[in-house]
Amino acid sequence: MEKTRKAFLKYFFLSPLSIAWESVYFIRRAFYDYGFIHQKSFRVPIISVGNLSFGGTGKTPFTLWLAEYLQKQNKKVMIVMRGYKGKLENDSGIIYAGKKINPDPVEYGDEALIYARRLEGSAIVVGKNRSANLNFYFPKFLPDVVLLDDGHQHLQLKRKLNIILFDALMSLDKYQVAPLGYLREGFSGLKDADLVVIGRADQVSREKIKQLKSLILNTLPYGVTIAEVGFKPKGFLNSSYDYLFNVEGIKNKKVICVAGLASPQSFYKMIEEMGANVISTETFSDHHYYTKNELESLLSKAKENQAYLVTTEKDMVRIKKVMNDERIIFLQVDLVFFSGEEEAKKIIDQCVK
User: Fold this and answer.
1) What is the model's pLDDT at position 4?
2) How confident is the model at residue 227 (pLDDT cuts 50, 70, 90)?
3) 2 band by pLDDT with thresholds 50, 70 and 90
4) Do 46-231+336-352 and 233-334 fold alike per CATH?
């Protein structure tokens, strides 16, 4: 009874704020759609990869997959992103991937450095004023296609393709607009979707996927493809990015997992499913910048337990800035489709041909 009363009071007091929040996004999007606010266009396709919710939905691995796919089509790719929690977030900067440079995650943010390491020949532009930054850096690189990272709410740029990601692990009760739930924009934002991707689809039941799809289909335009993806572990690397061993190599090994992610449970579960003996998980805030004392403490704990200290690729970017210690290893993962891959590729091909 008490739980029901609290739920009612929460809804009663927060629903007006939630409605107001959703209305602001709805009106803002309508102003752009009807031309009351101008969108800047470029002579090459802009593909937005974004989401409706706060937090992680797997945008980084999906954007990596998308950029690698485009590069295989001989497309010159530029990624425009915020550079979240980097010093250049409120300014601008560019990384030319493959050049002999050592960009700093403190300056550019961790995600930009992952793109730079994995996407040789691309350019990564950081800074929250993405329209102005693209305008400035575009002639310096002349890309064939621009990927707008976390771009669904960044309406100043006119995009040719909108890809919206969902995280299957997020509980269905959170699919309400803030502050009632975890959505920064209501489902009305799906009206501009050209492709929907459900991430971590292999980590929940088919019933959960069915319920999530039902929520999405209530607003999604007819005929828009819904693809399902997950993350395939590739192997373990050290801080110098040397390959150490494959997935089987961690089986029965003692492991301490370290993660500063929005959704670390997915990572922990993946390590457990490999057969590792996870003796503890050490969780930090999303995009956490580790200190030397924190890392020394974790290494000491690993030594005491004769365990591996295992982290994610995104965390390793930040850890390596503080301590380049090869006793810390990370799991590299690739994105894999469970359904909708051919349809997704067809949509992308049509966009950039």
Assistant:
1) 66
2) very high
3) low
4) yes
Enumerate the domain spans of the chain: 46-231+336-352, 233-334
The tokens for 56 are 């992680």
Give the global pTM.
0.91
Q: Which residue type does 216 have? A: I
CA distances to 43, 62, 140, 276, 280 from 286, rounded to whole Å, are 36, 18, 32, 24, 18
Asked if residue 3 has pLDDT above 80, the reply is no
User: Residue type at 344?
Assistant: A
SS3 sequence, the chain?
CHHHHHHHHHHHHHHHHHHHHHHHHHHHHHHHHCCCCCCECCCCCEEEEEECECCCCCHHHHHHHHHHHHHHCCCCEEEEECCCCCHHHHCCEEEECCCCCCCCHHHHCHHHHHHHHHCCCCEEEECCCHHHHHHHHHHHHCCCEEEEECCCCCCCECCCEEEEEEECCCCHHHCCECCCCCECCCHHHHHHCCEEEEECHHHCCHHHHHHHHHHHHCCCCCCCEEEEEEEEEEEEEECCCCEEECHHHHCCCEEEEEECCCCCHHHHHHHHHCCCEEEEEEECCCCCCCCHHHHHHHHHHHHHCCCEEEEEHHHHHHHHHHCCCCCEEEEEEEEEEEECHHHHHHHHHHHHC
pLDDT digits (tens, 9 = 90+) for 165-184: 999 999 999 999 888 888 99
**Crossing angle, helix 292-304 and helix 313-322, to 10 degrees?**
110
Q: Is the pLDDT of residue 289 over 70?
A: yes
Instruction: Say whether pLDDT at 321 is over 90.
Output: no
CATH number of 233-334: 3.40.50
Q: Which CATH architecture has domain 46-231+336-352?
A: 3-Layer(aba) Sandwich (3.40)
Residue 195 structure tokens: 């492709």
